[in-house]
Amino acid sequence: xxxxxxxFGLLVLPTRLWxxxxxxxxxxxxxxxxxxxxxxxxxxxxxxxxQDLTKLAxxxxxRPGQLRIEYLSDPKKIYVSDGETLWVYKNADTTAWxxxxxxxxxxxxxxxxxxxxxxxxxxxxxxxxxxxxxGFKMIQDKTLKQLALxxxxxxxxxxxxxxxxDAKTRTVKEAVLFNASGNVTHYVFSKIQFDQPAKGVIxxxxxxxxxxxxxx
Length: 216
Prior knowledge:
With 216 residues, the chain is of the alpha+beta class. 19% of the residues lie in helices and 40% in strands. A 12-stranded mixed sheet has the order 7-8-9-10-11-1-2-3-4-5-6-12.
């Protein structure tokens, strides 16, 4: 039995080392970019409703800490941050929710994921890839290298994050986010651009139309 366990450990160790290197390379790829943007689709399986919901969106990230996620499907909700404050509002609405601490609405792990995989190796542990249960969303493009991560913080709202990484560019093309609520969200990124001027992108709450601010 000891020999069997030792042999299994020797098989798993290279996989973990390879995955840890890949996580560091993904983090480094995004860390060296001053900005990046992409279109993405977001398909969420809502556990309590046994329902699937798909949205189309665009994300823009600019250092330091500026973030804009605009959902193009109804309801057209927008998340925008200037690095210190996060606002959430509907495109046609006159009300905006203001969070002076983004962590009040998004966990550190979610912020890392959404803002470009910052602090990836600080916030997540790399684990060997496991076959997901039937019915769970998985990485669809089998040419991508799969990277399975679990949050180091026990109180995180995320159970696991699986990334589909392009072998050549080390960019994330797909991601599957497993939430503690039971929801599973599959992201597919396209038209990814690094260090391109984000023309017309506003990383703060627009002054027009005049909005009612609800501080949280």
